[in-house]
Design a protein that fits this description.
alpha/beta; nine-stranded mixed β-sheet; transmembrane; two-stranded antiparallel sheet; Glycosyltransferase family 2 protein; transmembrane helix
Length: 254
């Protein structure tokens, strides 16, 4: 059985980190939390659980996750977010992978809790992410947002059974606040990639398609009020992203 490290990056995650650490059980031999100088009790909670805590200034999601991966004691790593919780079935699947490691990385499915509702439609499920990996065979990639673990060419990936329970937004206000933050970052990322042209197609039709695709074609309507909120706010996010990109471009050209 390969030795396994769990790595988690945090910033002001006092509401979530205890639940995440408690659910680890005996799945790993080493747990390290890389904290971006939280101002709440995140670090105290981590130390109460007896895990290693390293404080490191946040330089971006890709950089922080690669740094955290490098701090792991072992080459086989499970990366989690503070708002994720392992289920019994997923813990068993991780143990099975450790006992018979066959791939460069394994993906897990996330089941998201949105304002108290478990979301199974609208494109939010199963939301598979590569999170269990051999750090020697890949790395975290991306620009400013939408980071992902990418395995080296020629390497294979597998899938784990079970779920990571993802406690995302506890209120509409929190969702809107995060959306405002992330759309600003996404607009900056698009500009860095050379995407500067914004038309009515981007401002009107793409948000409309985002809502229709998630709510109708991906059956978000089956998630009731939560599904409607997700589809509506996601469509608003598409508009904000391109509106911010447009104003950013116009300022640069002025």
């Amino acid at each position: 059985m390969v030795s396994l490290s769990v790595v988690i990056i945090t910033f002001n995650e006092a509401a979530n980190i205890g639940r995440c650490l408690q659910a680890l059980g005996d799945v790993a031999d080493d747990v390290v939390v890389v904290d971006s100088f939280s101002t709440d009790t995140t670090v105290d909670i981590c130390r109460q659980h007896g895990v290693r805590v390293i404080q490191h200034a946040f330089a971006g999601y890709v950089e922080q996750k690669n740094y955290a991966t490098a701090q792991a004691q072992f080459d086989h790593v499970l990366q989690l977010d503070a708002d994720e919780v392992l289920t019994d079935e997923l813990r068993q699947a991780i143990r099975a992978a450790r006992a018979d490691w066959q791939h460069a990385a394994y993906s897990l499915a996330r089941l998201t809790n949105y304002c108290g509702h478990w979301v199974r439609h609208g494109g939010w499920y199963p939301d598979r992410k590569l999170r269990l990996y051999d750090r020697r065979l890949g790395r975290w990639t991306g620009l400013l947002l939408h980071e992902k673990f990418e395995v080296d060419p020629g390497q294979t990936t597998g899938q784990l059974a079970g779920h990571a329970l993802h406690y995302s937004y506890h209120s509409i206000a929190q969702h809107v606040s995060q959306l405002n933050k992330f759309t600003s970052i996404t607009a900056q990322e698009l500009a860095l990639r050379g995407r500067t042209r914004v038309t009515l197609f981007h401002l009107l039709l793409k948000p409309l398609w985002k809502f229709t695709h998630g709510y109708v074609f991906r059956l978000g309507l089956l998630d009731g009020f939560a599904g409607l909120c997700i589809a509506g706010i996601s469509a608003w996010g598409v508009f904000l992203k391109f509106a911010k990109l447009k104003t950013r471009t116009e300022r640069a050209e002025a």
